[in-house]
Amino acid sequence: KLEEFLNFKQLKTSLKEAILLDYYTAGFWWAKERNFSVIQLSGFMNLLNFLLENLSDKHMTLGDNLKELGKAMAGIGETDSERSGELNFFSIEEAKAIIDYLNISLFKQYKLYEYLFHSPREEVVISNE
């Protein structure tokens, strides 16, 4: 179902689509295992997409993307409504867990994702004909 939602048409032959499906699927199941509510799950998936778009479309460095994550997470746990950010439906403990997850899922593999999006590759066509 997720591949349909992401509109992946060449999943069997596209390494990029397969990697992205794995990225989003792993994130989705991680959040489900943490028993996130529907709103939290939606916010988490938006965060995954936001950080990946920063890398793919805006060519952000790891440091710049970490700064963007900090801005997105700012205000979590604050009671003052003016200071709370878009992700204020997460607790401080959940925010820490999200940062830990992003560290192992995206940030530790950042160079690989940069290569995926920004390095030209030859596509090998394999056929059974």
SSE layout and pairing:
Blueprint: H1 2-5, H2 15-33, H3 38-56, H4 62-73, H5 92-107, H6 110-118
Helix pairs in contact: 2-3, 3-4
What can you tell me about this protein's structure?
- It comes from Smutsornis africanus (Double-banded courser).
- Pfam families: CLAMP (PF14769).
- This is CBCO1 protein.
- With 129 residues, the protein is mainly α.
- It has helices spanning 2-5, 15-33, 38-56, 62-73, 92-107, 110-118.
- The protein has a domain at 37-119.
- The chain is built from six helices and no strands.
- The chain is globular and about 60 Å long.
- The two termini are 30 Å apart.
Uncertain spans? none
C-alpha-based Rg, rounded: 17 Å
Distance between the termini: 30 Å
Give the mean pLDDT.
85
**Describe the biggest sheet?**
none
Order of SSEs: HHHHHH
Structural class: mainly alpha
Shape: globular
Helix content: 55-70%
Task: Give the number of helices.
Answer: 6
Hey, roughly how much beta strand do the residues contain? under 5%
**Overall number of strands:** 0
